[in-house]
TrEMBL record, chain A:
Family: Belongs to the ABC transporter superfamily.
Protein name as catalogued: ABC transporter ATP-binding protein
Domain ABC transporter span(s) in chain numbering: 3-244
Keywords from the UniProt entry: ATP-binding, Nucleotide-binding, Transport
GO cellular component: plasma membrane
InterPro entries registered for this protein in UniProt: AAA+_ATPase (IPR003593), ABC_AA/LPS_Transport (IPR051120), ABC_transporter-like_ATP-bd (IPR003439), ABC_transporter-like_CS (IPR017871), BCA_ABC_TP_C (IPR032823), P-loop_NTPase (IPR027417)
């Protein structure tokens, strides 16, 4: 398993936002994390990536305990996320943004005595990532000028620049019109096969066509983990989440 | 984006990055123009030296404020530390060699910057302003109470600065002072330009644009902040030492809150995060002060206040930001 959580628990006061969550992500996984609003999906990602500290439980990356490791260190070890609401660098161009992420990964961003253009490999790698996501044409415009869907792609490009082993996508298509969101998920589906991907998504059509496994989270606890077909048919899932009329 | 531009980037994105950082004709003309006081305005050479020194100080503040987004109201502490270091070196230890005085002033300030940077990176927003303000005031009072070392309210006298490279004597008219100040300003500018155009400079802009995202791309951004704060303190210290050496006096004024606040006003006037804004801001501020104080010595700050409000209202990115927008629109 590339990523495992063992009995993760977290309380905000008396509210249990994570209850005994244990999941395993194998290499190359395409897993979806679903659940009604307030089920604790984003909280779970915050726990795994270190924005929140769990009250108990362990997180293992490649068998190594990272429960007490800081966020930036986890990223450098290969555990990266994207955000539901864009967290980009508005005045930087996508090329600069992604190059920055590559430079941080390569440990050259502390270098203040050589011009940025001397880090040719980093710039070219950054541009290659953008090209793969179809952003070559807008690579040199300030990010804030990009269309919203393109900004969602920059989110993913920034994550890819860290060379993740595990990629946690928090609603990659949030706020994107339905026809464009399918396009975004094609990008997700075409991510390098060795990356383990866990994504949060509300659109069940997308979940069932892109995920090989679906984890259902309700009230901070895992209700069920199964293949899409089984999840679709599960009466408990229908009841708490999908609504009886849906699917 | 036209097709041609796109294909040029595809060919070499690194070249595109480099092209953004090339020296422009405006920059070259600007630096040639800085020689004008030597030939055309010899009566204003002392003012010109003041401007060059203050511009160097403003550059150091632009690094932290304009690029890394650290809002400071206490940067005079580093300027003053450099000034007093050079002054004490000369008046107490009878060492007036200018270059080593500059370097030592920069080093003392850098050390103070490094130590305080651990505090700086722990706070943000209003708390950050208060911490920088508090550190500045503390340093001022510390210098005030260490009379035996700093001369207290009387300041330091008996400073004499030796010939530069053992050759160029400081003359009465200020030719040497200005040439020396300008040369140090230019070197300081080159260092700042290198810093902001490096991968480190890109990381600083990332911090300014979205500090919360930085850990998520694997960045230990607090280390970046400590580093830029130290570099900035060193440059401010060199500017302070330069003031001591060109005026042969140091008073507590070098550590004053007024100096910390003035430099922020200059940056806002000129435009933050673009280096030249710091220099232009210093020129406008000090020339206006000189001219307006000639008209009415009591109320000159009134006009600076009006100018400041006009700039903030109509050119939120400073005078240089407003100009560059005008030029781009005409293209």
């Amino acid at each position: 398993m590339v990523l495992s959580t063992q009995s993760l628990c977290k309380k905000f006061g008396s509210l249990e936002v994570a209850r005994d969550i244990s999941i395993n992500l194998p290499a190359g996984a395409r897993y979806a994390l679903i659940g009604p609003n307030g089920a604790g999906k984003t909280t779970f990602i915050n726990l795994v990536t270190g924005q929140l500290k769990p009250d108990s439980g362990r997180i293992l990356l490649d068998g190594q305990d990272i429960t007490r490791t800081g966020t930036a260190d986890r990223v450098r070890k290969g555990l990266t996320r994207t955000f539901q609401i864009n967290r980009l660098f508005p005045e930087l161009t996508p090329l600069e943004s992604v190059t920055l992420a590559v430079c941080e990964r390569e440990g050259v961003s502390a270098n203040f005595w050589r011009g940025l253009s001397a880090h040719r490999d980093a710039i070219e790698e950054g541009f290659a990532i953008l090209s793969r996501l179809g952003l070559a044409d807008v690579a040199t415009r300030p990010t804030r000028q990009l269309a919203y869907g393109q900004q969602r792609l920059v989110e993913i490009a920034l994550a890819l620049a860290t060379k993740p082993k595990v990629l946690l996508l928090d609603e990659p298509a949030a706020g994107v019109p339905k026809d464009e969101s399918a396009m975004l998920f094609k990008v997700v589906a075409n991510l390098p096969e060795d990356i383990a991907v866990l994504f949060i998504e509300h659109d069940m059509e997308i979940v069932f066509s892109f995920a090989t496994q679906v984890i259902v989270l309700v009230g901070g606890a895992v209700l069920l983990q199964a293949g899409p077909d089984e999840v679709k048919e599960d009466p408990r899932v229908r009841e708490v989440y999908l609504g009886s009329a849906h699917v | 984006m036209t097709h041609n531009q796109t294909s040029a980037i595809v060919e070499s994105p690194a070249r595109w990055i480099r092209s953004r950082n090339r020296w422009t004709i405006f920059e070259i003309l600007f630096w040639i123009a800085t020689l004008a006081p030597l030939y055309f305005f010899p009566a204003y050479l002392n003012l010109a030296s003041q401007v060059a020194i203050t511009a160097l100080f403003a550059l150091s503040v632009d690094l932290v404020l304009g690029y890394a987004g650290i809002i400071t109201l206490g940067h005079a502490m580093f300027f003053g530390l450099g000034a007093f270091t050079a002054g004490i070196l000369s008046s107490r230890y009878v060492w007036g060699e200018p270059i080593s005085g500059l370097l030592l002033g920069g080093m003392v300030a850098a050390l103070a910057g490094y130590v305080t940077s651990f505090l700086i990176v722990r706070v943000q927003h209003l708390a950050l302003i208060m911490v920088t303000l508090g550190l500045g005031l503390l340093t001022f009072e510390l210098a005030n109470s260490l009379r035996w070392l700093t001369g207290g309210t009387d300041g330091l006298t008996g400073i004499s600065t030796w010939k530069i490279f053992g050759y160029f004597r400081f003359d009465l008219w200020g030719y040497t002072s200005y040439a020396y100040s300008l040369a140090v300003l230019f070197l300081g500018f080159l260092i700042c330009r290198l810093v902001v155009s490096s991968s480190f400079g890109l990381a600083l802009r990332g911090i300014r644009e979205n500090v919360q995202r930085m850990p998520a791309i694997g960045s230990d951004y607090k280390w970046h902040l400590r580093k830029v704060y130290t570099i900035s303190a060193a440059i401010a210290g060199i500017a302070g030492a330069l003031l001591t050496q060109t005026t042969n006096t140091v008073t507590l004024e070098v550590l004053s809150f007024q100096r910390s606040a003035d430099v922020v006003v200059m940056l806002i006037l000129g435009g933050t995060g673009r280096l030249y804004g710091a220099i232009i801001g210093a020129v406008i501020f000090l020339v206006a002060k000189d001219q307006l104080a000639g008209i009415n010595p009591q109320y000159w700050f009134l006009w600076i206040g009006i100018l400041l409000m006009a700039v903030v209202l109509f050119m939120p990115k400073g005078i240089l930001g407003g100009l560059s927008r005008l030029i781009r629109r005409e293209d």
